[in-house]
Amino acid sequence: MVVKTQDVRTPCYSDIYNIINNYTNTYYLYTLLFAKLYAENVINKAFHKHGVASFTGAWIETN
Predict the structure, then answer these.
(1) From CA 13, how far away is CA 45, in angstroms rounded?
(2) Which domain of life is it from (predicted)?
(3) What values do phi and psi take at 56, rounded to 5?
(4) Would you say 58 and 43 are in contact if contact means Cβ atoms under 8 Å apart?
(5) pTM, 2 dp
(6) What single-letter DSSP state applies at residue 12?
(7) Which whole-number Å values give the CA distances from 57 to 7, 17, 29, 41, 62, in the listed order?
(8) What are 18-59's pLDDT values in tens digits?
(9) Residue 62 belongs to a domain
(10) 46 is in which domain, residue-wise?
């Protein structure tokens, strides 16, 4: 009977780089999402002040 031991290795630089890269991508994704929602909120408030209910929610497609 052969017992296989689990291969344990120390994390190398590429592993650390991938972890940091994934975290950074997630951070920027949420930053962009927040910026988009914030911009929509500011635009909607400005247009609501001038009598338009929702600007970003009412796009009109033209040919």
Answers:
(1) 48
(2) Bacteria
(3) -75, -20
(4) no
(5) 0.42
(6) -
(7) 54, 40, 22, 11, 16
(8) 877 777 878 888 888 888 888 888 877 777 665 555 555 555
(9) no
(10) 14-52
